[in-house]
Amino acid sequence: MIDLKGKIAVVFGLANKRSIAWGIAQKLSEAGATLAICYQSERLRQDAEALAADLPSARTFQCDVAVDADIDNVFEQLKSAYGKLDILVHSIGFAPNIKNDVLHTTREDFRIAHDISAYSLIALARAAEPLMTEGGSILTLTYYGSTKVFPNYNIMGVAKAALEATVRYLAADLGSKKIRVNAISAGPIKTLAARGIGDFTKILNAVEERGPLHRNVEVAEVGNTALFLSSDLASGITGEVTFVDCGYNITGL
Fold first, then answer.
1. Where residue 52 sits, what CATH number does that domain have?
2. Is 91 marked as a binding-site residue?
3. Catalytic residue at 143?
4. Overall pTM > 0.85
């Protein structure tokens, strides 16, 4: 059994109990980690506090990752509250007008998609590094649409490709500090974010039909992988994209 007692973990992007971030937060908490939950705006405060109430000793903090001052402020609060940080989970992605094909993506929509979905990992890692005095684990969430074309995923696929490249470069930058940076590529899950992808059911059906396990992945399975990657059992793993998709990514036809 993985023991994370004494470890401090901060989770960005926890929206509700159907989100991947919730599955990860649950597994980290069950292993004994102390959780900090960050929500984007005052509008989401009540939901975040309700989620945190189900996790022993969890606290909530407000942070809009698109605002540098918010990031600086929340990490000052984390430093004051905990003194250190061991685990950071980045479960954030957003692309405006995702229904537009890539050819018709505007310059501003491209900028926002990459700012929120990829650059925010850089900003959070930079702020977290001084608090990871004993090393640590930084995790982000990606999707196979970064590598292969999926209908209606559009500019988010391009942003996820940038995110995965960011993981590799951050892993190289932070490795000397004993900070590991990895990504989990989860299979399609019916989350709030997935609602914005047209014909999402077709993707779910394709995984059931052609994936080796002939089913879709569950949030808890992604949480288990995050728990492993956050623990000392994964001490030699960094800069990697780990697929948790019931094997769908290995298939051709």
1. 3.40.50.720
2. no
3. yes
4. yes
